[in-house]
Design brief:
- This protein is of the alpha+beta class.
- It is built from nine helices and nine strands.
- A hairpin with a 6-residue loop joins strand 8 and strand 9.
- The two termini are 45 Å apart.
Amino acid sequence: KHDVVGDLIYGTIFSYFALNNVQDEIAQQSADIVSYRAPSYGLFTTSLNTQYWFGVPRNVQFGGLAMDVDYASHQTVEKRNIAASWISYNRSMGTRYSIMEHAVPEMIFSTEEGEAFGFSAVKAITTAASEGQKIYFINSENVDEKLNFVALDGDVESEIRSSAEAGMEVISHQYQIAYEDWVGVGYIVIDPNTGAGAYKVSGGKNGWLLAKIAKALDVAIGYISMIEDALGDVKYLYKPLKKLVGQFKQFLINLRGLVEILQTCNAGAGLLGVILYGIMIYVMSRAIVLAVGAIVAACATTGAGAGPCIFAASYFLLPYLLEITNYFLDDAKSYIASGDLCNI
């Protein structure tokens, strides 16, 4: 097993450099560049996720595969000695090398039964842009201003600040992204004098549980939508049922919004979301308990059959209680999205 897996892993990182070598030769011809690879190295490894119970490791699971090219170096010369062209070539080469970090494993490990997905700094930024996030170009002149608009991990923001203050240019998106079961950020640190850069990813598969919950909620919402459509234009007696189904669907959508907050926002926004959602759900659950208690008392007073009476009253009451709950949950999400903690 070790030999088979080892050969596969070695073949992946070897393919990464081999494919880049071929593309380097093609790019050099069109850019009037002479380039020779200097000593370079990288890793393609297996990764493990450790599960802890009160600080004690209890279980280890396979977490996927990780491509980490720590150093890719070239000796390049622009034939006409034009510095701007040389810098532009170096930047374009760095971008391509970053793209290949996710593209090569995807090509090797995708099958007809399932498509593999990888991540790189460039893919993280393009994914964030496609989701509507703003992309910031940060330097020493605007670092204080731009960092006010991002909500990233503290270590990442610290590195962005120190890099910008050292004269580097940094490209970053606003906040964490969740893609499949990967949660993290991608950012690029460029030396404007050479075009060389560090294409970095921060994050991992620690968001797998939230991703599973999100998928389960999406499936549940889909099934409830089918029930809602099946009810169609129902008679008066069944209208409360349709309203109940619709409000329950909206309740699940709001819970899906909480998962989105936890996936894409920083810890402060996530904690705020849990607190606000928890308060709203607790208050409304207490309201439901009190309402049912009042119904039971009313049924007992009128002498009506307790079971049918409670069912009939709850049948008409619950949709409106859920509607009120959803109203407050929508407000909670809007409050978080409009603040500085997160932009959903």
